[in-house]
Design a protein that fits this description.
single chain; 197 residues; mainly alpha; Arc Repressor Mutant, subunit A; 2 domains
Length: 197
């Protein structure tokens, strides 16, 4: 959850948004839009698709918000909607026979950087870009089941119990999947580092 807001404050904003407050819905949007966009972007890779799916997510939230019974579950509910939007997009693309490229059109895979605002000197930028390509390869090799829990744990820095609520799987299953995903990524990085020597 954004650090600057408590669960009770968030629940109060959700309640007012459910009662029709446009200002409070906008506040929810501002609180979560960047995190949801980054989550979707790391799952799907294309900036254009991530922008579209982020908008679709918040449109669906707006339509369905009144149905949310437990306001304290808003954050998990929001991530589930975003995740479902990504999965639907992947299914539609599969049916059309097209592939979604995880290699975003805009630039050197900067979408993988943990902190998009950081500036690197040219040498570090090049090394970072190379490592990002390795991580990209690792993410591409993961099934969606592993990719989403890995992104939630590593990039969104969520606790296992929070991830379990979002993906609707047991805590043990989530821990196992994150462990396996980390092994795949670690193996890709090890292989890359071995080639550099």
């Amino acid at each position: 959850m954004p650090e600057e807001i408590s669960p009770d404050e968030l629940a109060a904003i959700v309640k007012r948004a459910q009662q029709g407050s446009a200002a409070d819905f906008h506040a929810l949007y501002e609180l979560f839009v960047k995190r949801i966009y980054n989550f979707i972007l790391r799952l799907i890779g294309s900036r254009e698709d991530a922008e579209d799916l982020t908008q679709e997510t918040f449109l669906k939230v707006h339509r369905e918000l009144k149905k949310l019974r437990d306001r304290k579950q808003f954050r998990y509910w929001l991530y589930r909607i975003a995740r479902n939007e990504v999965y639907q997009k992947l299914r539609r693309s599969k049916k059309k026979g097209s592939e979604i490229s995880l290699d975003g059109e805009e630039g050197p895979l900067d979408w993988l950087l943990a902190d998009e605002g950081m500036e690197l000197d040219p040498e570090r930028a090049f090394l970072s870009q190379e490592l990002n390509k390795v991580i990209l390869g690792a993410l591409q090799s993961l099934t969606p089941k592993y990719r989403d829990v890995f992104v939630l744990a590593v990039f969104q820095k969520m606790k296992y119990v929070e991830i379990s609520r979002i993906v609707g799987r047991s805590l043990l299953s989530v821990k196992t999947d994150i462990y396996r995903a980390r092994l795949v990524v670690k193996d890709h990085v090890k292989t890359y580092l071995g080639k550099k020597r």
